[in-house]
């Protein structure tokens, strides 16, 4: 969006497993999207971005290492939370991590201003990088040298690449979180679906994972506790992912019965009649 408004050329490197909606949205905004092979995982897309910038003299944003990332959250997101909860309880802040920018930036602010607030960090159960205790090997730039040994594929897009981002590692050194909670892919998807169908909150798999983590915290927290989690994404980015595998495009039997309840009913092209025994 910024590049479109300011006239900058923008090239995005994205690993193949990410949803096609993401590619189309960025191309709609005028960016070029370079898709890297699935086998290369997150480290592959980072390496491709490095290669392209070295070859063409382009600026590399370094989102996983750039100190401006958490600094922005420390100057905006964190203070916004303090304002919203001024004079009120805030017992837990629950968050996953992608680059670690939100976690570090908000965590620094909360620990300084409201040390009584417990910070709960979430990560995919299938990719428990932090829980493993194994560090990511790094280049001189801070970028990963290779894939983390504890990584396995998971459906929570936007969370936990196949390495520990430098921004996140720096946050670990600051001792910002009080508890680490794993979230499985199925519970993230189920929670996202329930948020949509029962609350009208249209979030993606990572949003579902964040809420699943908050619910786990709530199950153990003292009665009356106040828990904050944030759902920064939207479900429209996930229509080609497992989040929508169980959502049909055609009418089911119940919907067909509703359709047949008035005189204008007719089958649409390609639909089969429901046979009753």
What topology emerges from the helices and strands here?
Elements: H1 2-6, E1 11-15, H2 20-28, E2 32-36, H3 41-56, H4 68-75, H5 77-84, E3 92-95, H6 101-113, E4 118-124, H7 129-132, H8 166-173, E5 179-183, H9 185-199, H10 205-220, E6 227-229, H11 253-259
Parallel strand pairs: 1-2, 3-4, 3-6, 4-5
Give your account of this protein's structure.
This protein has 2 domains: 2-56, Rossmann fold (3-Layer(aba) Sandwich); 69-238, Rossmann fold. It has helices at 2-6, 20-28, 41-56, 68-75, 77-84, 101-113, 129-132, 166-173, 185-199, 205-220, 253-259, and strands at residues 11-15, 32-36, 92-95, 118-124, 179-183, 227-229. The chain starts with a helix and ends in an 18-residue tail after the last helix. Helix 6 (101-113) links the parallel strand 3 and strand 4 (118-124). Helix 4 crosses helix 6, helix 5 (77-84) crosses helix 6 and helix 9 packs across helix 10. The protein is of the alpha/beta class and 277 residues long. The longest helix is centred in the N-terminal third of the chain and has 16 residues, at 41-56.
